[in-house]
Amino acid sequence: MSNRWIWAWFPELLRLETTSERAEVYHRCYGRVMKRPIYWIIAGVIQIGAQIVVGIPAARFAKNYTIPRWLISSGIPLLIAVACIFVIIWVMRRAIIRHIRRELNTRGLPTCIRCGYQLRGLPETVRRCPECGATRQTVDGNADD
pLDDT 10s per residue in the chain (145 long)? Predict the structure, then answer.
């Protein structure tokens, strides 16, 4: 996998100094997301839900018009599957980004978990992110309240 692709999709990694550090953090966070079954369950639910929500009305629509049966039986489910792949990639990417931001916090680079804003220059008395208003996370991952 090209490093340029990784840095473009996960710009938070560019805050780390060395390429080896960036690769280590990326692979650790990627591994955490891919090993958790909840993300795969979400992916399956998205796929099945989209097939049901779009497939059944499309089949009923086809009965009223002269649309070839092969288009409904294979074409529409294929299009739905391809569209759902993009949604699943987005969900996985968001999870990896969240893990990367937590990892940056543990490495001493204060970052907002929700929006990615760098909290480096802010005093410790500021308890919310100035960009999005999210509660600031401490190094151990708990919210400062």
Answer: 566 777 788 888 888 888 888 889 888 998 888 888 888 888 888 888 887 877 777 767 766 666 676 666 667 777 788 888 888 888 888 999 999 999 988 888 888 888 888 888 888 788 888 888 888 776 555 555 4
Question: How far are the Cα atoms of 23, 63, 74, 82, 94 from residue 30, in angstroms, in the given order?
Answer: 10, 45, 33, 22, 11
Close Cβ partners of 99 (under 8 Å, ≥ 6 residues apart): 28, 29, 32, 33
Cα dihedral 57→41→43→23 (10° resolution): 180
Report the candidate in 103, 91, 97, 138 with the shortest Cα–Cα distance to residue 116.
Answer: 97
Q: How far apart are CA 68 and CA 42, in angstroms?
A: 32
Cβ partners under 8 Å of residue 128, min gap 6? 134, 135, 136
